[in-house]
# Entry
Amino acid sequence: MGRAGLTWDGDPRVKPPFGAARINRGHLLARDLVGFWPINEHGGNLLTDLASSKQGTLAALGAAAKPTWRPNRLDLTSGNASGADASYVTVPDHPVFDIVDAVSLMVSFSQDLNGVSDLAGVAGKWGVALSDRSYLLWFTAAGTLAFQVGDGTTTTGPTTSTLLNTTYVAVGTYDRSTIALYLDGVLKNTVAATAAMPSTTRPFEIGLIRSDDPTRFAFDGQITYVYLWRRAITASEVTTLHAEPYAFLRPKVARRYFVPTVAAGWGPLFSRQRNRLVVVP
# Structure
């Protein structure tokens, strides 16, 4: 299942390069990383989390089909204007996702269609009740991308504009002082805030929010990867991750790793530098 002389030693649910890699916990970018879904499985019903082993399950509501696997990404649909028919990924609630003080959420996505009144959930922990709203990357009623956090009684956050059918990397951060929203490595907007986020029993959802309500805010488009930290990553870290999103990965076994090919549908080319995996343009 690889090139001659190479040994497959990775998670069988994840195809190379991620199955042959592990997170370098000594890397600064991996500090407090609690969720990393590289979306590289190319099939199946599970979305593997390489950070905390909290796997996501592909799901559908109403008459919608489950998310469709594409090379290195998931294709999700909002189904209809009400969000009653929608495909998404649900990750069961776990203490590592119950973040109250500082958080960072990074998602690479491309939006195909606006959702109900332009509302569309990208990723986060968010319910109907204000006490169930922790952190969220989504598209607002104005059709703008927003990163919002809640305090149990209200929600707030910065916004920025995006285009349909365009791939972006969005990062939202919060440190009990400032909520910041970055797009493609550039700071777009900030909002001052100091309150703690509520700890909830809501699942972490990708491609949908408020699955506990008939009026769901579903995302229509593709998602390439999702990261979650229990801290606010810095502006310089955002810049580094935009240029090299897998900087904190390294081969599980030194000098034994896969170099996948695009033609084989196994994702971007990788090479080994200083015992880590980096993208080769």
Observations:
- The first helix runs from residue 235 to 243.
- Residues 92 and 203 are 5 Å apart (CA to CA).
- Residues 1-16, 254-281 have pLDDT under 50 and may be disordered.
- The chain has one helix and 23 strands.
